[in-house]
Amino acid sequence: MRNYTEKWIKPDKKINILLVDDRPENLLVLESVLSSPEYHLISVNSGEEALKYVLMYDIAVILLDVQMPGLDGFETAKMIKSREKSKQIPIIFITAISQALEHVKEGYHAGAIDYIFKPFHPETLKMKIEAFIKIYKYQEQIKMQNEVLNVIGETLEDTLVTFDETGRMVTINPAITKMFGYTEEELIGHPIKVIVPDLSRFFTKSKKLGRIIEVSASRKNKSIFPADIQIGEASIEDQLIYVCSIRDVTERKLLEEERFRKIFEATPCLVSLQSVVDWRYINVNKSWLTYSGYNEYEEVINQTSVSLKYIFHLNESGETVVDMSDLHHPVQSSRIKYLNKSGELREGLLSTEYMDLHGERCLLSVITDITERVLVEKEMARLDRLNLVGEMASGIVHEVRNPMTTVRGFLQMSKDFPSHEFIDIMIEELDRAHNIITEFLSVSKTNSVERISKDLNEIIELLFPLIQAKALYSDLQVHLDLNLCPVLQINEREIRQLILNLALNGLDAMSAGGTLTIKTFQEDNEVILAIQDEGCGIKKEVIDKIGTPFFSTKKDGTGLGLSICHKVASEHNATIKINTSNQGTTFFVHFIIKGNQVNVVS
């Protein structure tokens, strides 16, 4: 594997090493010691030839003999160092003559960076050459990187700026002129806020290094344009330097605005754009004009007197009327009513979002008009109520007609054969009709009885003897599993009726030997009542109809018992959930805890 420092050197390029000695035997020795597939050894026997090859090749290091005829080593070294192209080449003198200090000083003065005295140790020479070759490769790497960076800096359309911790620009690439109109010399040493005035708003507070930030940039002619900037940091000689790339995104913004404009105009929603400064309308779409009752854009654009009144639904707290200036935070799909120019009250879903547009803070508002949908929903609800009334009326007629028919028949028979037995049967049938009407009225009436704090377990324990007596009569068992629970704010009479109805239904659903389990427990912020039977379960196709008046799975049932349970739960804002299988059915009633008291909610 190649070393990182070698990646800028072509794989097939050998490192040139120049060997200079007037004795061929000395050159052979040097060649044998330094022989390597990575090296290209160039051997010459004079200073004149050495100067020629220095001009022809890119030399990594020179091994130069001092004592040569003609140009000696000192003179050759001085000439090599005097040329711009070759002055950085390291020179190692090889000599067998004097090691005197003055002689060595002369060599260093001529440009040598090292001395090797004959006879030399081959491994020492190899290690020194390898060290210089590493330095050469590193220098080549730096040179290549600088060339690449220079090419990038000169050809890149983005502006590249480096600045110090004080914000002053240190280096700038040539793209600055085309993008900003400045020359490099005009800006170096000046604060970067000259070209990116609002940079400090994004950078100094949050140090968003590496992230693309959208800013407004300023040209030399003071015109403003949108730009994306990205900032990185580096430490050079213990000095922190920031590198900032700036990209002009004017064209992209124009495309985005065009795309937004098409969506803005085509959407059926009411869309408006207002300035937060004075709440004037910057733009509205055609749907906004249509629904708001205005005919022309001129009536609205740049106007502050035009305003839709928004009526926000606040659940149980009622409603409140607000202007857009009252909306301090964005809203999402908030149910509203709004008054248009003609005074018509319409309904919609409002979403808002704050944004910066050309340096101005704006509010984008989108209303989905649901007036027609609400009318359709109300009409469907009315028809559903009429349908339910029809079904209930049919059920009442059917249920009441049966005992009335029986009474009428026995009255006719009593004309000819008066009997106490007939009278008892007629009274029983009239009582049945009375009970049906009473239960129906219980389902339909609105109860406003005040609630009190009551322990659910106490109510169950009070009803237990009655439920157990009914169970024993049918050879059934009742098991209580009551756990400690907070008290509830409830109407005791209604809750007794709910428990009895659910318990008696459970007993009716089981055959002899079954067990009815009544359980209470607390789960998270809920108190739960569970009544479980061991019957055959409820069929999936009818489970959605459970609780509908006059629908029952029992032979003689009216369905009003479970309707009353749902009515009681609804008045307490409760939920009844059903879990059923062929092993039995469990009815769960959920109560949500609020502080030390509990209100049941759906």
Give a structural overview.
22% of the residues are buried. The N terminus and C terminus are likely disordered. The radius of gyration is 49 Å and the shape is elongated. It is built from 15 helices and 25 strands. Helix 2 packs parallel to helix 3, helix 11 packs antiparallel against helix 12 and helix 14 runs antiparallel to helix 15. Strand 13 and strand 14 form a beta hairpin. With 602 residues, it is of the alpha+beta class.
Content of β-strand? 25-35%
Q: Helical amount among residues, as a percent range?
A: 25-40%
Low-confidence stretches: 1-11, 313-317, 596-602
Main sheet summary: 7 strands, antiparallel
Overall geometry comes to elongated
Task: Report the average pLDDT across residues.
Answer: 78
Main sheet: strand order? 12-11-17-16-15-13-14
Helical segment count: 15
What's the number of extended β-strand segments?
25
Which structural class best describes the helix and strand composition?
Answer: alpha+beta
Compute the gyration radius: what is it?
Answer: 49 Å
How far apart the termini lie comes to 70 Å
Could you give a short description of this structure?
By secondary structure, the chain is of the alpha+beta class. The protein is built from 15 helices and 25 strands.
Any key phrases for this structure?
single chain, 602 residues, alpha+beta, 7-stranded antiparallel sheet, 6-stranded mixed sheet, 25 strands, 27% strand, disordered C terminus
What topology emerges from the helices and strands here?
Blueprint: E1 15-20, H1 24-34, E2 39-44, H2 47-56, E3 59-65, H3 73-82, E4 91-95, H4 101-110, E5 114-117, H5 122-155, E6 159-164, E7 169-172, H6 175-180, H7 184-187, H8 199-202, E8 212-218, E9 224-236, E10 239-248, H9 250-266, E11 270-275, E12 281-284, H10 286-292, E13 309-313, E14 319-322, E15 334-339, E16 345-357, E17 360-369, H11 371-416, H12 420-444, E18 452-454, H13 456-473, E19 477-482, E20 488-490, H14 492-508, E21 515-523, E22 526-532, H15 560-571, E23 575-581, E24 584-594, E25 597-599
Parallel strand pairs: 1-2, 1-3, 3-4, 4-5, 19-21
Antiparallel strand pairs: 6-7, 6-10, 8-9, 9-10, 11-12, 11-17, 13-14, 13-15, 15-16, 16-17, 18-20, 21-22, 22-24, 23-24, 24-25
Helix pairs in contact: 2-3, 11-12, 12-15, 13-14, 14-15
